Amino acid sequence: MATLTLTLLKFIPVFIILFIIKKLYGLYQRRKALQRALKDFPGPAPHWLWGNMKELTGDYQGMLRTVEYAKKYNGAFPVWMGPTDAFLMTVNPSTVKYVLSGTDPKDEFSYALMRPWIGDGLLLSGGKKWDRNRRLMTPAFHQDILKNYVKIFYDSSKILIEKWRETTEPVETFHHISLLTLDSMMKCLFGYNSDCQNESTRHPYIQGVYDVSELIVKRITNPFHHNPFIYKFTENGKKFYKACEVIHEHSSKIISDRKQLLRTEEKGSRNTDFLDILINSRDEDGNGMSDTEIQDEVDTFMFEGHDSTASTLSWCLYNLAKHPEYQERCREEVKEKWGNKDEITWEDINKLEYTLMCVKESMRMFAPVPNISRCTEKDILLPDGRLIPAGVRMGVSIYALQRNPDVWKDPEIYDPSRFSSENKVSALQFMAFSMGPRNCIGMQFALTQIKVIIPMIVRNFHLDLDPERPAEPESMLILRSKNGLYLKATPI
C-alpha cells in the first residue's frame, strides 16, 4: 500500500503539468476562436498580456484615442482586454445602426458587477422578460405622469439653491447635483421625502444607494475585485453587499406598504407615480410583475436615473460656465419666458428652446453614459460585407461617435446652434439616450428634470470655472470628472 501511495505521489507533478497544459490550450483555442470571429475587423495591435487596455483606458486620453481609432479603422475595431478576451468597439453610425437596431441583450460581462444591486431589471434582462416588462413600464413615463413631477423637481432644486447661497467657496458640482437627483427620484418613485440633500441626516436607504454607486466605480478600476469570490472578502466588498442588503430591505418594505395603501386609499386622492404603475400594470394575460421584478426595476431605475442625470446636469453647468455668452443667453431666455414666477409648470419648461439646445450640445460633447454594450444573438451582416458573428460582445462608444469628425463638423467646439430647429439631427448622430428598441426608457423623465434644474440654477447664479481645479472627463460607467467638477456659483 505504501509503495502504491509513493508511486501515485510521483505522478502528482505530472498531473499538475497536464492540467496546466490543458488550461493553456483551452485559452489558446479561445483566443484563436475570437481572432476568427473578428477577422473582418482590423484594429490596434494588442500587447500579448494586457491587450489594448493600457491605451484605451477610461481616462480622457483613452477616450480621445477611441475617437482617433474610429476614423482609422472604418467605424469598428477589436479591443483586447487581455490575451483571451476581446470585444468589438463600434464608433460609426453605419456600424452602430446595425448593432443597436435589434433587441440583443446587454453584455453580461460588462454589467455583471451591478447585478447584486439591480438584479434582473430592464438593464440586464433580455428576451421575453425584457420585452414584457418594458411594455408594462412604458406608461410610467407618459406625459400625464411626468407633468406631476415638475413641482417635485422645482422644490428639490430650491433646496440646492439655498445650500449654494450659503457658501462662498467653489462647489463640487457633481456631488451636490447627485444628491439633488437622488432626492427627486425618491419623491417621484416612492412619494418619499428622504431629506438626503441635508447630509447630516441622510436616510440609510439613500446612504446605501450613494455608497453602492461609489463602490461600483471603485470596483471597476480594480480587476482583482471583478471576481465575486475575492470581492466579498475585501473591505469594499463587505460594504457593498451590506449596502445592497439595506437597499433591498428598504425598497421591499416600501413596495409592501404601497400595496397596502392601494388597497385602502380613496381612488384619485393623490397623483399616480412610478411605483403605482409598476404594481398595477398587467400584461395581455392579466399578469402583473412579481415583487422581485418590481424591486429589480425600482433599483435599476434608481441606478440608471440619478447618476446619469447628475452627469448631464453637471457637465452642462460646466459648459455654461466655460462659455459665459451662452450662459447669459440662457438666463435671458429664462427671464423672458418665466419672469418672476415661483410656481413653474409643464408648459413653462417647454418654452425654453435655447436652453435645451445648450443641454443637448453638452450631452453631445460629454455623453453621460460614454459606452454601452450588447452581445449578438445572431449574425449581423454589415452593408460593406463585414460579418459580426453571433455571440460576439460589442461596445458602442457614444462619446467617440458624437465627437467623430465624419459625423460632426468641428466636433471639439461647443456650439448649441447644432440643435436649432433648422438643423435636423438624426438618431444616428446624437444618441446620448442610445437608440433602437433598448434605448433609455427614462429619457423624457430625465429631460423633464433637466429642463427644470438648469434654468433654476442659471436664474439664481452666475457660474464660473474654478481655474485652480480644472475638470478632466473620465469614463466610469457614467462620465465623471477625475478630480471633481468645481464651479464658482455667485448668487444673482
TrEMBL record:
The keyword ATP-binding does not apply. Its cofactor is heme. Coiled coil: none annotated. Its EC number is 1.14.14.1. Keywords: Heme, Iron, Membrane, Metal-binding, Monooxygenase, Oxidoreductase, Transmembrane, Transmembrane helix. The chain crosses the membrane at residues 6-25. It comes from the Eukaryota. Heme binds at residue 440. InterPro entries: Cyt_P450 (IPR001128), Cyt_P450_CS (IPR017972), Cyt_P450_E_grp-I (IPR002401), Cyt_P450_sf (IPR036396), Cytochrome_P450_Monoox (IPR050196). Belongs to the cytochrome P450 family. This is Cytochrome P450, family 4, subfamily B, polypeptide 1. It comes from Mytilus galloprovincialis.
